[in-house]
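Regression check, pyridoxal-5'-phosphate case 364:
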Amino acid sequence: MFEDQWLGHGSRTRAFEAAFAGHLGVAPEHVVFVNSGTAGLFLAVESLDLQDGDEVVMPSLSFLAAANAVLTCGAKPVFCDVERRTLNPTAEDVESALTDRTRAVVVLHYGGYPGDIERIAALCRRRGLTLIEDAACSVASRVGGKAVGTFGDLSMWSFDAMKVLVTGDGGMLYVRDAEQAARVRRLAYHGLAQPSGFGHAKVSARWWELDIPEPGRRVIGNDLTAAIGSVQLRRLPGMIARRNEIVALYDRELADTDGLLTPPPLPPGHESTHYFYWIQMPPGIRDQVAGDLLADDIYTTFRYAPLHKVPAYGHTGPQLAASDWASDRTLCLPLHPGLSDEDVLTVVTSLRKALAARGAGQAT
Ligand SMILES: Cc1ncc(COP(=O)(O)O)c(C=O)c1O
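Current build output:
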């Protein structure tokens, strides 16, 4: 890699895009390697050419970049509710937030659980809406063998340092429509019709001249991170297998714990990346339990803080009762392939102790 003397966007980027396209079961020209999942989300939303007054529906429990991307494009994020136990929206949740100003829907797959994606995709097709999948957590998630992220029109994955497939920073975009994919590729690199430089100068004796059909940014990936991504992709099955083992261990150890709910079983045909292992407990004790675990050096967190509660996003719609319910009760436990069985049991012991101390069985 370093002997090549070239670390920028080049052959290794194209190789990673091709390998990732193979992993998804799509053609490589539909896949664009960018420098973060957020950049991918912004590009996806930007390519919809939203107008003032247009609305984009997303679950309140979304990653904030989805709402930021919509607002930055001058449109309005509209938040829908989720299903309490999976923290994913159902097609009915999405449908109830649609208006005649809705142009698109953005859904993420909570913790890698595919959720109601087939029915949401069918709803969007029926209503003529663009579906963007925020597949940041779902690099290995499938429904009936079909990769999550290929149900919608555009989707993105994140490879940041916290994710399952990690390149340090990075993201992949999938764009179903070939022409739109070519446009997104241009927008990711300044909007140039073809990359500048000697190698692409066949159109002119002056290889420094520019052709910009529309202005873009510079959010491309590079060969250094792409090389890491290609190796990570080869290792993905092993990393997912270990995640599955850890989830099974948590499930077994935490089953029938008083006052505790564990993630519901996956529906037949659904495969999860198992990015989160989330538990739910009586609302009055969740924060205390998180504090008790932290005192034992065990970091837990809640993803994703409900966006309908963030004043900047201006939610004026209906109460989102299930999002509120889940936001008061949910905690994500440590989950990564570096955990040994012993580590998992340490978390379980500390959690059981905290739940008992806080009266989980009696709390409401
Ligand atoms: C659901 C979701 N979407 C998007 C992103 C953004 O990805 P990145 O950190 O690569 O910009 C994240 C990152 O945490 C995420 O969890």
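Comparison notes: The CA atoms of residues 53 and 75 lie 6 Å apart. The mean pLDDT is 95. No diff flagged against the previous build.
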